[in-house]
Amino acid sequence: MSFVTPSAPQNGYRGRFAPTPSGPLHLGSLLTALASWLDARTRNGQWLLRIDDLDVERTVPGAADHLRRQLEAHGLYWDGRPRYQSRHLDEYREALERLRRAGLLYACRCTRAQLKRSAHEGVDGPVYPGRCRALALPEPGHALRLRAGCGAIGFGDRWQGRQSRDLDSDIGDFVVWRRDGAAAYQLACAVDEAALGITDIVRGADLLGSTFRQLRVMDLLGLRRPIYAHLPVLCGADGRKLSKQNRAAPLDERNAGANLQRCLRWLGQELPAAAHSVPPHELLHWALRHWMPERVPALQRLEVEHCA
User: Fold this and answer.
1) pTM of the complete model
2) Are 217 and 146 in contact (CB under 8 A)?
3) pLDDT reported for residue 30
4) Are 133 and 173 contacting, i.e. CB atoms less than 8 angstroms apart?
5) Cα separations (Å) of 224 from 48, 193, 258, 265, 291?
6) How far is 188 from 177, CA to CA, in rounded Å?
7) Looking only at Cα atoms, what is the longest distance across the chain?
8) Which end of the chain, N or C, is less surrounded by CB atoms within 10 Å?
9) Residue-level pLDDT at 73
10) What are residue 152's DSSP bridge partners?
11) What are the backbone angles phi and psi of residue 14, rounded to the nearest 5°?
């Protein structure tokens, strides 16, 4: 399917969960999966699964199968077949070509060390200063950056409220094609949402900075924007986000009920007294009947032990 002719707009909600197969899911992953699943199911919508496996170095053999089993063990079943990013490279190349024809790309030779020295700190992290913008470097062997442009870009987030950034000072030109010849995360995600006809995205607040970049790609390609809802990010006692890189403990499927209870409490939901004694599928049925998205904390970070 070409991203130029994405799935026709649905007469309802289409959400998704998009894990990277770099290892097993952890509690932070489950929090996002559960919130997006509940948001879709309580609105009679579809919930899709996308496997973000473009980064070969991070992809662990067998991890995609494992994380699917983990979702199933927690009663979180998806609609249709999972979309694997690695199987849609032509769509990303087509999007890149459209940006190239519009004169929006340039080659960049900057190394990470150079970027660390020259980038200034923005709201969401380092901002590229445009060192290679006027050099007209050949594309082969270099990363390709998108000219972000000037002015403000914003969107209304269901949980975090109105969000806005300045394209030049807060975002800066960003990579859409890596030097190894692979599509970069921001381009691939923007194309994926359109190809799947996604209407609503529920994910962690640590991805707010990425949202602005993906929206910029969507706007330049003429793709429809989804509605975003960013959840608080689960952090450990050390203040760091629960993640595979930070060696977060993998989910234990044998404790599926307890895992779901903890996530529901973190999402601000009031559980019945007998929640601890019911199997996961009954707990999910209860959650579907009582889901109150307005109770989700309007925070960007949440300690793991909070409400545990």
Assistant:
1) 0.91
2) yes
3) 95
4) yes
5) 18, 9, 38, 33, 28
6) 9
7) 66
8) C
9) 96
10) 166
11) -135, 110
